[in-house]
Amino acid sequence: MHELSVGLPGPLRELSQGLEGTQWKDAAWALGIVLVALVAGRVTAALALRAIGRWAARTETTVDDAMSTHLPRPVRWLLPLVALELVMPLLGLSKQWEDRLQHALLVAIIAGVGWLLVKVVKVVEDAACRRFDSTADDNLKARAIQTQVRGFRNVAVFVVVVLTLGFVLMTFEAVRQVGTGLLASAGVAGLVLGFAAQRSLATLLAGIQIALSQPIRIDDVVIVEGEWGRIEEIHLTYVVVRIWDLRRLIVPVNYFIDRPFQNWTRTSAEVLGTVNLYCDYSVPVAAIRQELERILAESELWDGKVWSVQVTDASERAMLVRPLFSARNSSDQWNLRCEVREKLIAFLQREYPGALPRLRGELRVA
Questions:
Q1: What is the mean pLDDT of residues 312-328?
Q2: Full residue range of the structural domain in which residue 48 is found
Q3: Which domain-ending residue is among 106, 131, 156?
């Protein structure tokens, strides 16, 4: 036994019993090649990422910024593996060990390429979303593009993951044999798989349809199942709606294709708001109209476009006065409704204290 193997742990000592003479030199040579390959891969990755970082610092485009954000981890993983694959013939391993290591490296490289492709999809999505700002007042175009980009992102990531898993599985001989058997009975297998995947395919197609036809967009204001909220996330199989009280409603994508719902910002973020006031017949509507004009002129929430005051109903007890006004978006509309309601009630209390609906009774002495 070589003197270098005396101090090794039990399993390694047993493995090293066959390494005598020049075999120790060969093992050290192989280990050195592996270390050099890994270091070279890491250095190459660092240089490539540094070049991307310098490019991002010099330019104002969004693509390079997205690349410097999403690509470092898969690049640091993939390049050392590729370097190790290139030097594999130099290690002088036996046929059995070389085949095993080649297979393990192939699986790792396929996984790394899949990871890199997913990040490339993220780069495209991030660059598009940074270019179109959805926080602006007139953000219809930005929300439409972001919805399309994220919809296709979901489909692309799904395809990349499925293909990556398929390529990894096909590196195993047993899986290839099963695949050959399935191809021999492709008709029956296709019917069985098609029936089993019918619902999943319908969900996938619904996600693609939402990305193309856009019945909903990111940040759209919707009413779903009686809940008012905004579209926060659109995934491949479900949509997240942020309710006004910060709850999250998880809705399948098929819902927005198969069932009716309200979309307040389908063509524009501008919305109209109303307030219902039940007043006594003695209140002059002209005074309410004049007060509403003053309130809206002083409010930062009104967009300055539309306002009116109408009597929309009358009963034996009161008349229904409805102030109407416009706002830039649904959030401003809600706050403006509350502001107008509060100030008009204060106006009626101050100027017309008898303006609230009342029950009238008349007593007669016989």
A1: 89
A2: 3-131
A3: 131
